[in-house]
Write a structure and sequence with these properties.
The complex is a heterodimer of chains A (about 110) and B (about 120). Helices cover about 0% and strands about 50% of the residues of chain A. With about 120 residues, chain B is mainly β. In chain B, strand 7 and strand 8 form a beta hairpin. Classes of the chains: A mainly beta (about 110), B mainly beta (about 120). At the A-B interface, strand 5, strand 9 and strand 10 of A face strand 5 of B.
Chain lengths: ~110, ~120
Amino acid sequence: DIQMTQSPPSLSASLGDKVTITCQASQNINKYIAWYQQKPGKAPRLLIRYTSTLESGTPSRFSGSGSGRDYSFSISNVESEDIASYYCLQYVNLPYTFGAGTKLELK
Amino acid sequence: EIQLQESGPGLVKPSQSLSLTCSVTGYTITSGYDWSWIRKFPGNKMEWMGYISYSGSTNYNPSLKSRISITRDTSKNQFFLQLNSVTTEDTATYYCARSRLFDYWGQGVMVTVSS
């Protein structure tokens, strides 16, 4: 199985800050990484696919980058509605595997 | 609008089987995509459990070995999860989702394994 090491486990940010989350895969995943947002009591929402392709409806303040084993996800100008947990997913190989998640909180 | 909705018992006894249904509206499950079950544990770890494809083939997470079965009823546009010999470690929120990108999700159903 491909292990996805996501960091940090939690983030504290002020409104307007830029925050970055990273995921490192245990092997090359050829950019097949997606990022999800999950709010309490809700299903995860797909934000970004294939490293950097924003889903319809994903605000442009969200972005993704990376290659090989190392990937990052950023939110510029954090807004109150961005307070949530974020997960990465590799979907290049079965079994698909998630990162452990990052909880974004307001400072 | 594509919608998925999980249903099933919220409490299962250890050693018994967990059975959940995912009802899909707005898209026919035989038209395309894989249809997955995913669970989120109390510690927030998420695990892909397996899928049934639009053609009916299945693929399971090896971690679940021979305990898991995913089937479907195409006449009702539903697919199902059965997880056998459950333990307290199977306590989680269970989600169904579409495609390997999980672009559409159900709202989730919390299942507790307890005597």
